[in-house]
Amino acid sequence: MSAAGPDLSIIIPSYNEESRLPATLESIAEYLADSGIKAEVVVVDDGSKDGTAAVAEYFCIKIPTLRVISNGANRGKGYSVRHGMQEARGRIALFTDADLSAPIEEAGKLIDALETFDVAIGSRAMDRSLISVHESPFREFAGIIFNKIVRIILWLPFVDTQCGFKAFRRERCGIIFEQQRIERFGFDPELLYLARHHGLRAVEIPVRWGHSPATKVSMLRDSIQMFIDVFTIRWNSLRGRYPRKA
Questions:
Q1: Chain centroid to CA 233: how far?
Q2: Among candidates 159, 165, 167, which has minimal Cα distance to 140?
Q3: Domain 8-238 falls in which CATH fold?
Q4: What is the mean pLDDT of the segment spanning 191-214?
Q5: Domains of the chain, residue spans
Q6: Strands 209-210 and 202-206: what pairing?
Q7: At what angle do helices 77-87 and 187-197 cross, to 10 degrees?
Q8: With a threshold of 0.90, does the pTM exceed it?
């Protein structure tokens, strides 16, 4: 890797992912070899109790620029993404779910969009024909309701804030991760709210996606907390906890 750093950082927040990471890292290794992109892969181990870190480190053979960083304890997906973003060195930083629900080949759509925008987010809702495996009707309905609340409370224009596939022009978006406070699954709306708050340009792009039945999101516990998080973001803003640059 040159002193100038890679073009792309791929960040993978991971908690107890020893069974899903091998296929994911194999796909990423093939994608990077085929695309010729100068990239690093950052696996963030969120206090896993299994062999997540060891599995990831094994892939340094195939991905020499892979790094494994640890949160030390289980802090949540939002914390893991922030930690990975702050450790990233790439001009563009993209985070993806550990199961690659959105195939890594879709990254090109987001990367291309960053020629014009500062933030590019994958979307399942813009073109549902691209979904290969749907969530249960109840999960899909809950997601629609959640996004309506996000649009009302935070005035965000996006129809899918929760797709775990987002890319950022890293240096311009550094302030987003400096000010991010939500540490678990409700962090996505906060990132997008902060982007708009700081005058950064964001675009939503339809991507291929397939639901994984092994999702870590609990429909009861996590959904309730995510709704609370939306109001917390608004409260933080009203209290001046997201100061703009002078």
A1: 18
A2: 159
A3: Spore Coat Polysaccharide Biosynthesis Protein SpsA; Chain A (3.90.550)
A4: 94
A5: 8-238
A6: unpaired
A7: 50
A8: yes
